[in-house]
Write a structure and sequence with these properties.
The complex is a heterodimer of chains A (495) and B (616). Chain A has 495 residues and is mainly alpha-helical. Chain A has 19 helices and five strands. Chain A is globular, with a radius of gyration of 28 Å. Classes of the chains: A mainly alpha (495), B alpha/beta (616).
């Protein structure tokens, strides 16, 4: 049994998901919105980016489902006789909060080494003094406790790795074929050019015909690029899956933790910081920016003074001060946080808020300028001539025409915020040390890059994960912006 | 006539320019398409002549000009044809040699003088750069040459202007400087792409006659690209009509205007509103009958002022004010049309917006149906707003690109109409409106950008009509449109006025259009009305010298332009208008008394007043 735990950031992530689901329902009901999204999916890059992004999101979500496992019954004496004790007997849970991802990755977490080891290595990265059974001491690379421990003959290493990769690739190929076929069967459209009664029967295009169409890139939605991306993903994930049980695919860090595990766990932190901070920042930037640009006069002066003064305080300093104050609060109130995870999570949430409150100035300034321009547009004047209220004008005429800026700024900020987290962790005011994040990984890499021989895999893993996360988010946002900008797909008007 | 004796300086043979794009076929696959914007045109240009290419927007005339100069945007490319400049094929030249041709042998003037000059360099620097690039003149000699051309194009105080920046110049002066730059190296061919479209009529007349003079003096060939047939008839010797990328008719000007051959040319000429013509069939007789009964004014504007304060210093104290509108009085009866005419910057749009209570700085009295709108605030004003609406000049800027047409039309009804309109009622009313302005029924579900300029203007008209107004302020509703579309929109407005009895305040700079639609005219100059009266009286017997000059500057097909009637100078700044009569510095008949006080309005005939001291 287990006790589900909803941390603060979990709640916000779920709220965000609920909003997204609500938006999805709205899109399903409205034909024009459906058409716009159809345009998004017609973009091959967007389709591929969405797939990659959804893999990241899935990992992040799995890491968001938290619970406290029940302690084994043996350790809790059960007294069934007293009815009043029933509640007490049921509520014995571990103080450690785990996520579904932790459970899935439990084998990885349990097989830690003593210290650094290179990716796929069988021996430690540094020489150690080992005492032989006969009492002599030698300095050599000791075997790892888990990495390649199953190998009897070390010469088999290359063969073993190769075999596992091959097996993974073959599995990937098979799985890819099965998935593609299922996709083709499920998605083939109504037969084209069919006679009236054939249409009536609802007959569909034959799967072979449709797959040929997909393969030639002629299907309406570029399924081909989706399938290619899927193929690459499978060819990446499955061989790694094959290697994981016996090797540290991305090596281990200073305390011997698997870097792959760290990277996967860091994804949630990056996603939470990227999205929740934006969520905190947007209302400030949107509301204040629009108000300043629209009302002008003293409202404008006030808001301008506000963001100019906020902007002129060095950002890191302000954040560091806020985080330090908060840290003191957290440490003097241990009763607030029953578990360490809750404490770490609270600190992450606070970091999101602090980053959000200090980073809205740039977007606000941008939106103010754009609103200044938009408010003079004839359609705003026409709305004023109709006696439409100020807030309604802002909502219907100004806000939609600002959304492209917002979307771009949000995606740009996403990568910036992930990096800001790294900088803050470097200064020591970032996320809780017990929480994995790319920032802490990069921070650790500072020392690792300086030693000889260099430890490169921590930084590279953080780099590759962040690169693909930000890239896919960028590509996807770009496609969304294009699809929703009505000025970009003008039908029938030339030159 | 030319063909036998003189060799053409520029010959274009079978020029074909395409714009690459991608389109989606029915099955959704994307394919590369090449749209032929210029589709195989041939023409020749002889020394000393002006050849005009006329056509509506989108017909490919500007792309033709850019193809000749090889300045096409990236998406466009020339796929066939020859451009022979004195026998040398420009299209075959390498880019480095082409740079020698551009500016040296073939120069170009662009439409928008405001953006054709580099704002951070002085005029002198920009002129000298061109001269040093293409001639052997250097340093002081180049500067002398720059000064000489500036004087040639009639820039007053040329010496000082050389050290000034573009923002210190008015639009007309900037275009003169552009012409000076083009002429500085004495090119053989001048390509003028809509050189006066961005300018006012009086300035347009100045610039065009300057071009004509320079051409006479230098024997240069001019390729004039324009949409304005009247300009063509005044300034060109030969004309080519362009339609959908093809030159459909090439003829000498006189023969062309006497008897256009191609159906498209005939259509184009027929759509042109003509001044001094007999009132068109659009003027319905019932309006004339109405005039005798003298109904009470629907709109009575008294002493309307809009002064924008100019603030400076730490405490933002008002140091001066821009007198955009300075004491305007108007009156308009129900079902009638009053036209407000004047050059850009004279304050006519501000008058329109001030009447609609869209400008906070306005003062004075605006009586609408017996109620002073200036005194109304908040909810009281909001409830009256359905009575007066506005149609804007630019149909591309006046419709929200993010809203569907049905939402645009429903906005006014939701804000001002009866409470609790159901979706179905709204949809039905939107359908009715669309039908009323002659748009297809399915237009409501589309976005505004899917329509052409004329259709968009129809949407804007439907939006104004949605709340059943009694007064519509039409702010240059047709000046962004092609002539054929302009005629349709004017007809629509007149039909709507006949059907609904709405009063129109028609703001325009186009005298020909005004003559077609208006019952009465008010002429504005620098924030004040100088003359107003019935349309026939003001346009046939103008009393104010400014009205006369304005009428004379309008290019027409029917009479030649009198160069003597051209107004010198430009509109003064409304920050400190000239003392006395604002017009006296430009007035050919100015007298000493004009400098002393602004003349009082004087009634010269029934309903015809003029603010001028001149007897007559």
């Amino acid at each position: 049994m287990f006790l589900p735990v909803i941390l603060w950031t979990d709640a916000l992530v779920f709220a965000l998901l609920a909003v997204l689901l609500g938006a999805l329902l709205r899109v399903r009901r409205s034909a024009p919105l459906r058409a716009s999204w159809r345009r998004v999916w017609r973009n091959p890059a967007a389709l591929s980016a969405a797939l990659v992004l959804s893999v990241f999101l899935l990992i992040g979500l799995l890491d968001t489902l938290h619970f406290r496992p029940a302690l084994s019954a043996a350790s809790v004496p059960v007294t069934a006789s007293a009815p009043g004790a029933a509640s007490a007997s049921a509520a014995r849970y571990s103080s450690e909060v785990r996520s579904v991802l932790d459970v899935l990755l439990a084998p990885l977490a349990s097989r830690s080494e003593r210290t650094y080891s290179a990716p796929l290595a069988t021996h430690a990265y540094a020489r150690e003094t080992i005492e032989l059974p006969d009492g002599r001491q030698v300095r050599e690379f000791p075997r790892l406790r888990h990495g390649g421990a199953h190998l009897v003959q070390l010469d088999d290493w290359a063969e073993d790795v190769m075999l596992r990769v091959l097996r993974g690739l073959v599995l990937a190929l098979v799985l890819w074929f099965v998935l593609s076929w299922m996709l083709v069967i499920a998605l083939r459209p109504q037969a084209e050019g069919g006679t009236q009664d054939r249409m009536h029967e609802g007959s569909r295009m034959s799967a072979a015909e449709f797959s040929a169409q997909v393969w030639r890139g002629q299907s309406e939605i570029p399924w081909r690029s989706l399938l290619i991306t899927l193929g690459f993903l499978l060819a990446l994930i499955l061989p790694i899956g094959m290697l994981v049980p016996e090797y540290h695919v991305l090596g281990t860090d200073k305390v011997g933790q698997d870097v792959l595990l760290l990277s996967l766990k860091s994804l949630r932190t990056a996603l939470v910081i990227g999205t929740l901070t934006t969520l905190v920042m947007l209302p400030f930037a949107l509301l204040l920016g629009m108000m300043a640009g629209y009302f002008r006069g003293w409202v404008d002066d006030l808001i301008q003074y506000l963001y100019t003064s906020l902007h002129s305080i060095p950002g890191v300093l302000l954040i560091a001060a806020a985080v330090l104050v908060l840290q003191v609060q957290i440490e003097t109130r241990p009763e607030w946080f029953p578990t360490t995870a809750q404490r770490a999570d609270f600190r992450l949430l606070a970091l999101c808020f602090i980053l959000g409150i200090t980073s809205w100035t740039g977007l606000c300034r941008l939106l103010r300028g754009e609103t200044l321009k938009l408010r003079e547009f004839d359609y705003v004047q026409a709305a004023r001539a109709f006696g439409v209220g100020h807030w309604r004008i802002m909502r219907r005429h100004i806000l939609p025409n600002l959304m492209h800026i917002v979307l771009i700024a949000v995606v740009m900020d996403f990568s910036g915020l992930v990096l800001a987290e790294a900088v803050l962790s470097y200064v020591g005011v970032g996320v809780d040390p017990s929480m994995n994040s790319f920032g802490t990984m990069i921070n650790a890499a500072r020392l690792e890059m300086g030693r000889e021989p260099m430890v490169w895999w921590s930084l590279s893993s953080a780099f590759v994960f962040m690169f693909f996360l930000v890239l896919s988010a960028n590509l996807f946002a770009d496609a969304v912006r294009d699809a929703f900008d009505p000025r970009l797909h003008i039908g029938g008007r030339s030159a | 006539m030319h063909q036998d004796t003189i060799k053409p300086v520029l010959q274009v043979r079978g020029l074909r320019t395409v714009i690459d794009g991608s389109a989606r076929s029915a099955d959704g696959a994307s394919m590369a398409t090449a749209l032929a914007v210029v589709d195989g045109i041939d023409f020749s240009l002889y020394p000393g002549e002006t050849f005009a290419i006329v056509g509506e927007s989108g017909c490919g005339k500007s792309i033709t000009a850019l193809s000749l100069m090889r300045l096409l945007p990236d998406a466009a490319r020339v796929v066939a044809g020859q451009v022979l400049l004195q026998g040398e094929d420009l299209l075959a030249l390498p880019e480095s040699s082409m740079r020698q041709v551009r500016g040296r042998r073939m120069a170009m003037i662009f439409q928008e003088p405001a953006t054709s000059l580099n704002p951070v360099l002085t005029l002198g620097t920009q002129l000298v750069e061109v001269i040093e690039r293409h001639t052997a003149l250097r340093a002081l000699a180049a500067r002398q040459q720059a000064l000489a051309v500036l004087q040639q194009v009639g820039v007053p105080d040329a010496e000082r202007r050389l050290g000034e920046y573009p923002f210190q110049l008015s639009g007309g002066l900037k275009q003169r400087v552009m012409i000076a730059m083009a002429l500085a190296t004495a090119p053989d061919v001048l390509v003028a792409d809509e050189p006066t479209t961005a300018l006012d009529v009086t300035i347009q007349a100045q610039v065009l006659s300057l071009l004509a003079r320079l051409q006479r003096e230098r024997g240069m060939a001019v390729l004039l690209i324009t949409h304005d047939l009247a300009v063509v008839s005044q300034y060109a010797q030969r004309v080519g009509v362009m339609h959908a990328g093809k030159l459909v008719e090439v003829a000498a000007c006189q023969t062309f205007f006497a008897s256009p051959q191609h159906p498209y040319s005939q259509q184009l000429l027929a759509a042109l509103p003509r001044t001094q013509a007999v009132p068109g069939p659009q003027r319905e007789p019932w309006q004339n009958n109405d005039a005798t009964t003298q109904p009470a004014s629907l709109l009575q504007v008294d002493d309307l002022r809009v002064h924008y304060p100019i603030r400076a210093g730490l405490l933002r104290r008002t140091v001066a004010s821009v007198r955009a509108v300075d004491g305007v009085s108007l009156s308009l009866q129900a079902g009638r049309t009053l036209a407000l005419v004047g050059e850009s910057g004279c304050g006519k749009t501000t008058v329109g917006k001030a009447i609609l209570q869209l400008i906070d700085e306005a003062s004075g009295q605006v009586m609408f149906d017996g109620l002073d709108l200036m005194q109304l605030r908040g909810e009281a004003l909001r409830q009256r707003r359905s009575d007066f609406q506005i149609i804007f000049q630019d149909p591309y800027a006046s419709l929200n690109p993010r809203m569907r047409v049905s939402d645009i039309l429903a906005e006014g009804m939701q804000a001002l109409g009866p409470r609790g309109l159901s979706e179905a009622e709204l949809a039905q009313q939107v359908g009715q409106l669309l039908q009323q302005v002659g748009l297809p029924e399915d237009a409501g579900t589309r976005y505004a950008h899917e329509f052409s300029g004329g259709q968009r203007q129809r949407i804007a008209i439907a939006r104004a009509l949605a709340v059943k107004p009694r007064l519509i302020v039409c702010d240059e509703p047709t000046s962004a449109l092609d002539v054929s579309v302009q005629a349709q929109i004017l007809k629509l407005l007149l039909d709507l006025q006949r059907d609904t009895g709405v009063a129109l305040l028609f703001i325009s700079h186009n005298i020909a259009v005004v003559e077609q639609v208006a019952d009465a005219v008010a002429v504005m100059y620098l924030g004040r009305i100088v003359e107003q009266g019935p349309v026939a009286a003001v346009l046939r017997q103008p009393r104010h010298p400014y009205t006369r000059a304005l009428l004379a500057a309008v290019p027409t097909l029917d009479r030649p332009m009198a160069e003597a009637a051209l107004l010198a100078g430009e509109l003064p700044s409304p920050v400190n208008p000239p003392a006395g009569c604002h017009f006296h510095p430009r007035c050919p008949q100015a007298q000493p008394t004009c400098r002393e006080a602004y003349p009082l309005p004087r009634t010269v005939a029934a309903g015809h007043t003029v603010q001028c001291v001149l007897p007559e």
